[in-house]
Amino acid sequence: MKKMPQNRRGFRRKAGLVPLSRALSKLGVLSRSQAIAAIRDGRVRVGGRVETDPARLVTPERAQLLVDGERASPAAWRTIVFHKRRGVLTTRSDPGGRATVFDLLGEAGRGLIAVGRLDLATSGLLLLTTDTRLANWITEPANGVPRLYAVTVRGRVAETELAGLTGRATLRKSSARESHLLVELREGRNRQVRRMFDAIDHEVTALKRVKFGGLDLEGLEPGQHRELSPREIVHAFPGAPLSAVK
């Protein structure tokens, strides 16, 4: 019999229930750290009562949540593809003052959450949506959504070195100074591409995600974004669920 997931206190968690701090983050209202601070400061109400425990379990789509007296509810369905440049964080805010994708998007990023992340030194295609079901489906490893990366590494990479790499790697150009490759992965582990090439003694010097599912960056310069229709999402991610869209 399959066990239900548990929260940090050890209680069985019912499907759809998440900690309050995560619920506010999933709704695109606050970042996780901002949500925790707001809850502990008594600025959040659940069902009309002040809640100060960030681990309180709620259903984001059903709970009556107020932050500073304003209702925290899912934004209208929107999904965008964004061309992230290198040196920008995939987070809602940064205590150190570094630029984030949400700083660059401004009002266009309101209510959106990033579908997976690209690290500070990685550029390329970033998908953002208000649809948490869609985001969860795309990032679920079992669904095997492809991600294609253009990779530059130090030194000459031999074809024989590619056999031991995760995913599918294609060597495009190689010299004693550097090598250029395309790498396709079916899951988005943290810094996976960099770790793969570190393992064969080739440091990654440039990394760009050029495709995600059936989406690419055609027509988008760094810092630009494009709104996607539900039809485009269904075509790009066959089988993916769409919330609140007919």
What is the gist of this entry?
This protein is of the alpha+beta class.
Describe this structure in words.
The protein is of the alpha+beta class and 246 residues long. It has 3 domains: 18-71, Structural Genomics Hypothetical 15.5 Kd Protein In mrcA-pckA Intergenic Region, Chain A (Roll), CATH 3.10.290.10; 79-141 and 214-236, Alpha-Beta Plaits (2-Layer Sandwich); 146-212, Alpha-Beta Plaits (2-Layer Sandwich), CATH 3.30.70. Helix content is 19%, strand content 28%. The chain is built from 7 helices and 15 strands. The chain has helices spanning 20-26, 32-40, 101-105, 132-139, 159-162, 192-198, 230-236; strands spanning 18-19, 44-46, 49-50, 57-58, 65-67, 70-71, 79-84, 113-114, 122-129, 147-154, 168-174, 178-185, 204-212, 215-216, 225-228. Strands 7, 8, 9, 10, 11, 12, 13, 14 and 15 form a 9-stranded mixed β-sheet that branches. Strands 3-2-5-6 form a 4-stranded antiparallel β-sheet. It has a two-stranded antiparallel sheet with strand order 1-4. α1 (20-26) packs across α2 (32-40). The chain is elongated. The chain starts with 17 loop residues before the first strand and ends in a 10-residue tail after the last helix.
